[in-house]
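Milestone 3.1: sequence recovery, worked example.
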């Protein structure tokens, strides 16, 4: 996928899990990748590890998706470092799962702020750079964006909203030369919601599988746009 002019990507929430898996694949494809995390230390440590794949291809940036100015500074950092921004993956997310009787206002607000408003801020912060490169904006939603479940009021609301947001933005930007896609994974072996991945998660989608999907999207001919993709484990529960 690498060209004579190296492409660049920005992945929010890229220090671990799905974001890190995407970064690994893109770097192997010859794309320079900036990963963000609310923790500058976590972002820089992850970038150091990623640079073992290809030195100088990873950049760790401390940025909070809940703050537009923070997102804008992250974009400025990428453009200043590499001169361009071609691909954006809005991946940062959080999950609070509780009955509406126990769900706190703070948990509700954090879920909406990160999973939905944070993607809006990411889009606003990266739009000008993506117009210049005629780039790609990808959001990581969830099958929870179309399938509601018990104790999912906050998470469902954020992901239903994210799917709708992304599809509307796709219509807004496709005539501007910017592609927009939402990916909706099912069970992924990550650290999400304090889970610790283990061999028992072998049946689940792996983070690098989502990375491969992102790489495949980037390869698609310019005339073709897969705008919404559902992806799930082949054998649920390893059956």
């Amino acid at each position: 996928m690498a060209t004579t002019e190296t492409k660049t990507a920005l992945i929010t929430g890229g220090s671990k899990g799905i974001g890190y898996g995407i970064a690994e694949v893109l770097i192997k494809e010859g794309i320079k990748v900036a990963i963000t995390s609310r923790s500058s230390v976590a972002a820089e440590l992850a970038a150091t590890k990623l640079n073992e794949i290809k030195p100088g291809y990873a950049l760790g940036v401390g940025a909070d998706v809940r703050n537009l100015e923070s997102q804008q500074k992250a974009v400025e950092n990428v453009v200043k470092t590499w001169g361009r921004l071609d691909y954006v993956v809005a991946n940062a997310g959080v999950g609070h799962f509780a009955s509406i009787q126990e769900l706190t206002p703070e948990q509700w607000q954090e879920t909406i702020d990160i999973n939905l408003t944070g993607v809006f801020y990411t889009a606003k912060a990266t739009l000008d750079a993506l117009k210049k490169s005629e780039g790609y904006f990808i959001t990581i939603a969830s099958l929870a964006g179309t399938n509601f479940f018990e104790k999912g009021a906050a998470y469902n609301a954020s992901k239903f909203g994210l799917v709708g947001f992304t599809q509307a933005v796709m219509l807004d930007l496709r005539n501007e030369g910017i592609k927009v896609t939402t990916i909706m994974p099912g069970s992924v072996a990550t650290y999400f919601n304090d889970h610790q991945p283990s061999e028992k998660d072998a049946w689940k989608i792996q983070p690098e599988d989502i990375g491969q999907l992102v790489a495949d999207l980037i390869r698609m001919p310019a005339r073709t746009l897969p705008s919404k993709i559902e992806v799930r484990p082949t054998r649920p529960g390893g059956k």
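Residues 8-238 form a domain with the Rossmann fold fold (CATH 3.40.50.720). The radius of gyration is 17 Å.
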